Amino acid sequence: MPGRAKEASRKAEKDSKIQPSYNPLANLCIIQMTDMEAPLATPCNIQICEVTCDSFRIMWDMPPQDTARATHFFIDLSRKESSDPNRFKHRDVPTKLVAKAVPLPMAVRGHWFLSPRTDYCVAVQTAVRQPDGDYLVSEWSQVVEFCTGDYAMEHLQQLLDKAKGTAGRLLKFSVFYRNQHPDYFSYIRKECDGLMCPSLKDSSGSHGSPINGKLQGVFFSCNTEFDTGLPPKDSPYGPLRFQIPAGFLLNPNTCLYFADFYCMYTAYHYVVLVLAPVGSEGDTFCRTRLPMLDLASNPFLTYTGPQQPGEEPVYCHASDVILEVLFTEPVHLDRGSVEQISGHHQLMSLTTANAKKDPSCKVCNISVGR
Asked: Fibronectin type-III domain location, by residue (predicted)?
């Protein structure tokens, strides 16, 4: 019995010194949980590229371990004029875009109705969605500013297609005209030797039109009254009218481009056209930016050459839209005449200087911004 007791005592002492078995899976779980809870680095070196009128691509730098475990990106976008570019209600409760993590650069489109040629601010966070649904998030990146682009050719083609449905039948006309106040013509004669020089197109109409603030020209009208076939008696621009024979601006040596279609909270619409002499600086500018129209066959403004010897060319304009024709070269007053218009009042409310397009009109808006 004493021998057996001694042996049992030795066995118990040996068992007490045995170490617990190693469980690699359990340790791995502990390591993974620690990694999931480790802070995410703040995104840095934000880069914006491939900017269009309604989209852009964004990328930034982050450590490889964050790239491997990030499940979502938070993107906050606002117009530059906003005093508070990040409008999250809570640090990890986004009120703007939550996107699943994808390889960078990431395309951003369709999530906001981006406006063309508009300054924006953007900031990003990286995030890891946890099993309970909460997010582990990084700090916000620095705020980066960028500007969206003009309408591309495809967008202007959409606008052109809409304008075609509104143009109406073609009416004959014989002169282009430009109304201004007496001070304007006095200045042109005294300071410019009678030459009306091109000036920069203002920001009226569609915000994305490529000519706004970039193309210079002299604006003319050509619409006529239904009953007389002559220019209207009244004008929103002034009581003096410069008239020039249509053939001086519209002829086989000029190119015709479509530039815009818009309204100003009214039932009638404006179509902006550009007339640029072939090979001119204006022609070069428009050729890659605006849809070119056939002089002899388009719904807005046409030139038909003489069919027989002795005949005069025929000029026609659309009847159901107001045409604004931008001629890209200087025009001398000697080419036409300046006369007082016969109307008794000027319709100042119809001026279009820097006028804003109605963003709710279903007739003249397209889906890529206003």
From this structure: 42-151
